[in-house]
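Fold this complex.
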Amino acid sequence: MHIPDGYLGPLTYIPLFVIMIPIWLYAGYRVQKDLRSKQVPYLALAAAFSFVIMMFNVPIPDGSSGHAVGSALVAIVLGPWAAIVSTSVALVIQCFIFGDGGVTALGANCFNMGVVIPVSAYVVYKLISGKSDLTSIRRLAAAAVAAWFGLTLAAGVAGTEMGLQPILEHDASGLPLYMPYGLGLTVPAMVLSHAFFFSIVEALVTVLAFAYITRFNPTIIWDYKKFVKSQGENKPTATTA
Amino acid sequence: MDRNLTIFLIAMVALIVLTPIGLIATGSAYGEWDSDTIQQAVGYVPAGLQSLSGLWNAPLADYGFPGQGDTMADATPGYIFSAIVGVVVVGGLVYVAGKFFIKKDSDQ
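Structure:
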């Protein structure tokens, strides 16, 4: 899902950079405000994890390949703001050192993988998990569905950005200047390959790591204190909940 | 060091060592084709795509050493080296910035 240079024209990549600036600033502010010094090594690990998990390319039957992103897991464990920051750092380094994702498309890629995945996954996770126990099956299912949904939605967004190019950017004769395929091809290609393959990998990675963390290292979860408090309060206030 | 942190660091090293599994997938991702592939698919290379595509020359392009072979055996050392560089640089940047900006635990 790392859109290279040349696939998006300036009418798409400039607005996406502009959108990302306040998101980066606010996410940085929230991470600084919400996380504690003790959690910094885990934030660093989260960014490194996102980087390395994206190297596990998965081949699929149509001959193409793709990968998980890991930012749904980070959003659930360290919060969506931390996931925006950690995934963006991984994407910036992938772009400049490894040529994965274009320099002009960096705003788009950070939006798709660094914002759409963690924010949508976090919302789905919260909706499904509700007030269930930290180690409940329902919470695990919530993490899995959230990861699947987040990556699939991001694939649809990336497919939309690419598929808009023939409409937005073409020469006088109507020949596309950037991505030559329209929405009717790009959106189904991106959504289906993710929904049936890569998002399932994302869900598996997320649920395995989340099961481990909730059972063996739950205190690193960003809202763990709130969680313990609400668990404690759940008994007397169960009827009002 | 914190025992839990040690476990995560060991897991990270394991992931780095396992990254060459990702080389099994030889096909490119959708929308990440090179110019030749686009030429073959649609019969031309879009002008904007042509002019932007060479914009940046990454030092470890495609997570490998420059000029290495295409076989999995040839690509493995560069791929693992890239994983190490990426994990150290990405993790290191976040760690240093985090320690600088995020307040100490004592006020919590």
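Residues 74 and 97 of chain B are 36 Å apart (CA to CA).
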